[in-house]
Amino acid sequence: MEKIKMTTPLVEMDGDEMTRILWQMIKDELLTPYIELNTEYYDLGLERRNETDDQVTIDAANATAKYGVAIKCATITPNAARMSEYNLKKMWKSPNGTIRSILNGTVFRTPIIVKGIEPNVKSWKKPITIARHAYGDVYSNTEMQIKEAGKVELVFTDASGNERRELVHDFDEKGGVVQGLHNCTPSIESFARSCFNYALDLKQDLWFGAKDTISKQYDHHFKDVFEEIYENEYKEKFEAIGITYFYSLIDDIVARVMKSEGGMIWACKNYDGDVMSDMISSAFGSLAMMTSVLVSPSGVYEYEAAHGTVQRHYYRHLKGEETSTNSVATIFAWTGALRKRGELDGNEALMKFADKLERATIETIESGKMTKDLIQITTLEETVGLNSLDFIKAIRATLETYL
Ligand code: NAP
Ligand code: MG
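Above: the input record for the complex with NAP. Below: its predicted structure, written as tokens.
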């Protein structure tokens, strides 16, 4: 078979620890034998970030904005322990945070569904994609403990010095706690556009829930921004392909999600997304089966696995012990990126290859061959637990039967 060619490069961001090991295995076994991989490579491994004063992360994000599609390996977000482990010059920021702030995007997380790994919620037949607004609210709050009697007020001062005041609470001597939250209209607008675009892309309904009946200014503003952008920019496009935008109170949305079949995109405010994405991923089976894509309002896509660098497995790998690390989410990050690249370039062969590789991955697991994390949760009776490399080789063997 002749190798598939790529006209435009894909931005490739390599990463850390066990996922870096898987990255190379996936390329060697599942990609380069079949594709003339055309990538612009950025090494986001922590050592390289430290050497370049994190410039490599910024360069990779800018390249993503230029080419439109990127694939990223999981990376270490440094903490105190990593400072000494890697002898870092500085506690570099989370690469995902840096990339997100440059691309101004929204993260969508979707579970990969296979027979034999059944969701805990019986009615769920299709994946539920969570979109989390990753700016503001409680994540950039200002808060105080009040330990004596006194008034707390919200004060807005405009450019000419005029003040607007609202009483938050008049505390008695027993005190309490108080918190100030904010969000910015452009950020909410970007979030809404990313969600509407991604719904069009996946041809799935978009649901959004907030608490506008209680929060008549704050949450209501989110509702209004979504509504206005939908009416003015997306309604016709949604109707043309037969998908809907559905707003309801957050508690009503939660209740409906639990009774649904799945198959929708669920837009969440920052805190709701933080909490609900963990609920959805554990209810669908495993973090190792969640993909994640950052979509910017201008239509730039960055694909990755939702899990981290799987440090514990890496330390075992370094000691020469066998690992059984699940590569499915990372494989699906590659297929997502290759398919998107193919779509943008009109490269049918590349899109078809992405479909086949996904099918081969799912079919391999459904035939009972899987990594040990899945063995623990599968309902299949005849299973074989494979090590990291043998699992990837088993997928290759399935893939070969389609080519
Ligand atoms: P993690 O890498 O997601 O792993 C946590 C645990 O989940 C693992 O120890 C493993 O459990 C299980 N697991 C996760 N992915 C798996 C896979 N593919 N196959 C099998 N098991 C899997 O989270 P972490 O240990 O908290 O974080 C490690 C590093 O990743 C940190 O430095 C963090 O900064 C970074 N991180 C990066 C990203 C990103 O780049 N997007 C996201 C999150 C975390 P067992 O050990 O029980 O087998
Ligand atoms: Mg969370």
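Notes for the reader.
The chain has 14 helices and 16 strands.
Residues 142-180 form one domain.
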